Amino acid sequence: MQIMHTPGGDVVAAMQVKELLLTEVALMAYVAENPDSNFAVRMMQDLVTANEDAERRAEEAAENAEAAATA
């Protein structure tokens, strides 16, 4: 994982897919044991959303590459 600090003061973590999946599983387990933890629930929702967005972009890129190859 790489941690980056933006000029606006935010912190961004860039992860490999295996790190992302491990983090998602760990958060799911934590939320299952601590359902009242609003912070963990929000983190998990954000992580799942980011994961779904990345998957959608990868599928679109594959479809575009396939279309370009057949054109």
Task: Count helical runs.
Answer: 2
DSSP strand (E) fraction? 5-15%
- Largest sheet, strands/sense/barrel: 2 strands, antiparallel
The total beta strand count reads 2
Radius of gyration: 16 Å
* Structural class label: mainly alpha
What is the arithmetic mean of pLDDT?
Answer: 86
The low-pLDDT segments are: none
State the domain count.
Answer: 1
Anisotropy-based shape: extended
What does this protein structure show overall?
With 71 residues, this protein is mostly helical. The chain has helices at 17-33, 38-70; strands at 2-5, 11-14. The chain has one domain (2-70). The chain contains two helices and two strands, in the order E-E-H-H. The chain has a two-stranded antiparallel ribbon. Helix 1 (17-33) runs antiparallel to helix 2 (38-70). The chain is extended, with a radius of gyration of 16 Å. The model has no long low-confidence stretch (mean pLDDT 86).
Keywords for this structure?
two-stranded antiparallel sheet, mainly alpha, extended, 71 residues, 70% helix
